[in-house]
């Protein structure tokens, strides 16, 4: 018994360090398209990574968020505000975790209430904390002025929220996906899913360069949500967002010739639309199919009860319900 606690502590420390490393590595994606020397970004993946880590492995991992965020801030801004800004990010992610747990959030994301909770509590509400703390500190140190405070705050808030909306569903799917059930997956469905990813990549690439549009991803996203629910929609949505981010960084297609503010606004609207469409539609389809299965199971149980009553009332006659069911089966 005396060796269990140290062993548990070692595991937690390793998880904290791994989370800090993941936050630092994923922050490089956001810094590529950052505004004002990387200070704010319209897409900040570390927030999604942090929220999922807390939901999947527990609140004990919060020091990893603080450590990883502090390291990132030290390399991207004034050192004097690195720790306070990291505290703001950590507080936002912890509040997201607390709010989701309070409403009974399930990491399987198989209910519409879970999707709405992730959108409005985990992303939009909780990330107000990090954006407000961070932008206020930038104003205090003179990095931003009063005139640029609101645009910077809005970019920071939507960037953190997009990190939760785009990254969290994908990671939750990977963490909680029942992999054992997918060992014998239908090869036709596997080919269909791979083809969907390839078509999404190719179609977005061609449409961006040739036509300058990015909305072609939405029909494929709807198809993925309908056919595969969140395990299909999350990768397709993430791929579509990655393609849009690449186009924004390179500056071709829709983003050709636009200034940085317009580019970020378009990118935020696209990523938000992709994330909300894929998440809400997937969960709605999953919930509908689960309710249909429960209804069929209830009807089957009711049929068994009626058959037993029929047998009890007519012991010398064959069950009419069974004859009816056999006739329908034979006719098919």
CATH topology call of the largest domain = Arp2/3 complex 21 kDa subunit ARPC3
- Shape-level CATH architecture of the largest domain: Orthogonal Bundle
Element-level helix/strand string: HHHHHHHHHHHH
Q: Give the end-to-end Cα distance, rounded to a whole number of Å.
A: 63 Å
Shape: globular
Largest sheet: none
User: In terms of structural class, how would the helical and strand content be classed?
Assistant: mainly alpha
List segments where confidence is low: pLDDT < 50 over at least 5 consecutive residues: none
Instruction: Output the number of helix runs.
Output: 12
InterPro entries: MASE1
Main location: membrane
Protein name: Integral membrane sensor domain MASE1
Pfam families: MASE1
Characterise this structure.
The protein is mostly helical and 332 residues long. The protein has two domains: 1-176, Arp2/3 complex 21 kDa subunit ARPC3 (Orthogonal Bundle), CATH 1.10.1760; 181-332, no CATH class. The chain is 79% helix and 0% strand. It is built from twelve helices and no strands. The protein has helices spanning 4-32, 45-57, 62-76, 82-102, 112-125, 127-141, 146-176, 187-211, 217-228, 230-250, 260-313, 320-331. The longest helix has 54 residues, at 260-313. The protein is globular, with a radius of gyration of 25 Å. The termini are far apart. The model has no long low-confidence stretch (mean pLDDT 84). InterPro entries: MASE1. It comes from Actinopolymorpha singaporensis. The chain crosses the membrane at residues 12-36, 48-72, 78-100, 116-141, 153-175, 187-204, 233-253, 265-285. Keywords: Cell membrane, Membrane, Transmembrane, Transmembrane helix. Residues 17-289 form the MASE1 domain.
